Amino acid sequence: MKIIQLTILVLILCCGIFTWACAEPPNPAAQKTPLPFDSHRAFEILKKQCEFGPRPPGSEAHRKTRDYLFTELKKYTDSVTLQPYTSEVDTIDDPPQRKTLHMNNIIAEFGSSHSETLLLAAHWDTRPCADRDPNRDKQREPILGANDGASGVAVLLEIARILKATPPPRRIIIILFDGEDYGKTTDQMFFGSRYFAKNMGKWKPDYGILLDMIGDKDLQIPIERFSWEANPEFALAIWRRAEKLGLAPFQRKLGYKVMDDHVPLIRAGIPMVNIIDFDYPHWHTLEDTVDKCSPKSLEIVGKLVVNIIYEGL
Fold first, then answer.
1. CA–CA separation, 287 vs 293, rounded Å?
2. pLDDT band at 11, cuts 50/70/90?
3. Which of 94, 148, 207, 312 could form a disulfide with 271 if both were Cys (CB 3.0 to 4.6 A apart)?
4. Number of domains composing the chain
5. 2 part of a folded domain
6. What element of type H or E holds 88?
């Protein structure tokens, strides 16, 4: 769940000169042109996740989705692992009941471990209740999460295919966080990113990008404020690259302050930027369905991330 903490600002950011140093170690792969991002393939991955139904932790659909995502990533790298953990949570029942959830982050590695490491992240679980649905009688039903969950995962799985075909000039860690969207309060959310932030081990990145809610047909992506406050040069470098690539939905203005999976990593000292379109009217409702999403939106974000992988910032 994402919590708005400031009203949106529409002030255009000044055009000061910022740079983000991304060292590019010599690597023949850096001279190769990667495969183009296939928006239709990515959209099929989005739809496949939704075919399992709502995917909150503890459900059968959640287990099936975990197995599907793990199997798909194994097609592109042998270095795929589950990072299991448990969390004590309160259910959405009235009154709530205490239960233990068994969850898994899914982690895949590409490229040389001797180069800088870029983390690419999204969350693969979905919310167990449609608490913002306009129909109060349906607010206890789980959401499908076509945009809020499946969209970021779809982009990263398509990028995994590209990474296999053209090895990247830097080490890439793809992590699919579990337990992002579970509880009623932020204390009962972001389980996967919090666990990873304390247990990064060999996967510790130098910097990272989080993708969340990027499949909306009406895609508009301002700079998320937590990202800006923690790492303004890094954030601005990404939006400038988007401008250079002609990706109009990336707007160089400050947006909402969104509590999300990037925050635990920022607090752990990892520069992270959240690419998110939070102006999504179907957020946490039963209307977060496939028809609200677009292959073109996935392509816009995918094209940017692929460019950053192979050209740096």
1. 11
2. very low
3. 207
4. 1
5. no
6. strand 80-90
What are the pLDDT digits (tens) for 28-51? 444 579 999 999 999 999 999 999
Which backbone phi and psi does 90 adopt, to 5 degrees?
-100, 130
For residue 14, give both structure tokens.
């000044």
CATH number at residue 240: 3.40.630.10
From 105, 89, 85, select the one nearest 97 (Cα to Cα). 89
Closest among 82, 71, 154, 74 to 120, alpha carbons compared: 154
pLDDT tens digits along 223-246: 999 999 999 999 999 999 999 999
Q: Measuring CA to CA, which residue among 161, 154, 159, 195 is closest to residue 57?
A: 195
Range of the domain at 183: 28-311
Asked if the structure places residue 291 within a domain, the reply is yes
Looking from the CA of 275 toward its CB, the CA atoms found within 13 Å total 32
Cis check: omega of the bond before 167, within 30 degrees of 0? no
20 belongs to a structural domain: no
Mean pLDDT of the chain: 91
Q: How far apart are CA 116 and CA 113, in angstroms?
A: 8
Cβ(294)–Cβ(47) below 8 Å: no
CA distances from 125 to 34, 41, 55, 212, 221 (A): 29, 21, 5, 12, 22
Question: What number of other Cβ atoms are within 10 A of residue 254's Cβ?
Answer: 21
Q: Is the pLDDT of residue 300 over 80?
A: yes
Q: Please give the Cα distance from 206 to 270 (Å, whole number).
A: 7
Name, in order, each residue with C-beta under 8 angstroms of 96's C-beta and a sequence gap of 6 or more: 90
Of 166, 133, 128, 127, nearest to 37 by C-alpha is: 166
123 assigned to some structural domain: yes
Please state, in angstroms and rounded to a whole number, the distance separating the CA atoms of residues 278 and 122.
15
- Lowest-pLDDT choice from 16-25, 97-106, 176-185: 16-25
